[in-house]
Amino acid sequence: MRTAIVGAVLLVLGAVAVLTGLLPAADALALWDRVWPILLFVVAVTVVTELAAEAGVFTIVAQQTARWGRGRAWLLWLLVAVVAVLSTIFLSLDTTAVLLTPVVIVLARHAGLDPLPFALTTVWIANTGSLLLPVSNLTNLLAQHAMGDPSPIAFAALMWAPALVGIVVPLVVVFVISRKRLLVRYVTGQEDGIEDPVLFWVSAAVVVALMPLLVSGIPVWMPASGAALVLLVVFAVRRRSVLRFGLLPWQLVLLASGLFLFIEALHANGLGTLLARVSGSGESPLALLRLSVTGMVGANAIDNLPAYLALEPAAGSPVRLAALLIGVNAGPLITPWASLATLLWHQRLTSFDVRIRWGRYMLLGLIVAPVTVILATLALAATA
């Protein structure tokens, strides 16, 4: 509810800016024309993943992963990391943070393992693993537009090296700090069956079909909306009780809308000029590092989405936009509010009675975030 309140306040402030002329109405309309497909995609893909979770798709994936782990905790953790990477890349970071986190907690507990290494893996990969494709993160969709709408393949060609670094570095850190808990053996608990085979197989087929469509070059809101519509119809026939307003990420949409409008109003009144001085210019390795680190600091100070929006005009080129994405995607691992996915992840941990002290989380983030951002930026400079 706090998310919705903040979003509503920002929307009101943005509306006041439009009414008073601080933000020209034409600029506000141009902003809406840019962001409505992104917001529609967020709604649609959230509905798809929530309904797929209700059908048991992610639980069955977790159970199969446990079998593939062959009783070795390190192998199970590595397989969970692979699932988290695929989930983040193709279904967005929020899917990993919100839906995969409960699955891996239950999986670890059934195997008699400490769930914290698995939970930490999901939240770090949800953020740092969201660099490869436009659909992986809301900031990527914004950057794709600013880059001139390159295809998903062209976007990935620019981002593959920093994306690889963003996956490998956090996983190495998790393994090093959790090695005593991962170098053990486990025995799987009793597995859950498929409650409704029709819902399960239709949902699984929709998710599998959606993944290649999201990288096909079609505007992502189209296949996501189609997939959501198919699942809504099937659930309306098979399990109508699941269809509730809570399926819609209305608080996230309200917050994003408010941030879009508020930051646009600030840009219309000189914010861009100030940030251009801070973030510098040019595409040398040092210039890209300056921009990505600025993005990381901004994300941990105020949240990654407004940090991206504030710095986007100062980027100016595809390579610099890529550097900015590294900062705001791989960097928000320090403060709890740096990424909405982190806050959603922590809510899931609390609901499953898994405790992690924010002090410890921030200390670990102070280690892994700068290393990841710096190495990923250097990888970008070497391959762009």
UniProtKB/TrEMBL annotation:
Subcellular location: Cell membrane
Signal peptide extent: none
Keywords annotated in UniProt: Arsenical resistance, Cell membrane, Membrane, Transmembrane, Transmembrane helix, Transport
Record InterPro entries: Arsenical_pump_ArsB, Cit_transptr-like_dom
Domain of life of the native organism: Bacteria
Stretches assigned to the Citrate transporter-like domain: 4-325
Keyword Transmembrane helix assigned: yes
Keyword Transmembrane helix recorded: yes
Matching Pfam families: CitMHS
Parts of the chain that traverse the membrane: 38-62, 74-93, 153-177, 198-215, 221-238, 245-263, 321-346, 358-382
Membrane topology note: Multi-pass membrane protein
UniProt record, GO biological process: response to arsenic-containing substance
Predominant subcellular localization, coarse grouping: membrane
GO CC terms, sorted: plasma membrane
GO molecular function: arsenite transmembrane transporter activity
PANTHER family membership: TRANSPORTER ARSB-RELATED
Family of the protein in this entry: Belongs to the CitM (TC 2.A.11) transporter family. Belongs to the ArsB family.
Identification of the protein by name: Na+/H+ antiporter NhaD/arsenite permease-like protein
Organism encoding this protein: Leifsonia shinshuensis
Source lineage: Bacteria, Bacillati, Actinomycetota, Actinomycetes, Micrococcales
